[in-house]
Request: fold
Amino acid sequence: MDLKFRTSLAKASALFLLIAIFSTRTVSAMEMAMYDQMAIQDQRDYLKYLVTNVEGILTEQGQQALAAKIHQMFRAMPAGDKRSLGEAQFEETLASIRAYDAENHSRFTPKVESVLYVMLNKNGVQLPSTVDTRVAQRQREKPFWPTRPLRTN
Reply:
């Protein structure tokens, strides 16, 4: 083999290795576009799935007070409302990010998990930096699968 071919082969191998390393993290997060195509009930189920994972991780890490705050935020229903305060605030944050994205023609592809973290941060819940990594790990171990057909517009 000539040197040029070996160099190209080494570069290609390194590129594939990097893709393999980083794709597992990327695949585990859901883009907003995919979330938007899901049926409403599947969206609610996915949010519940994320919140349950975050609560569990915080509890494992000895952060019971944060887990309890999140639990309360997503379980307590305001009088006369069909959604929890957490779900309503999540939807508001999601809508504001969609509006910003549309207005600025952003190439940024927001992830649903990031929207949840932003909403929690707005409510004074400072998550440890390890939570995002652990959520991604849990999603790879036990992924969420929508049970209803995707919406097509």
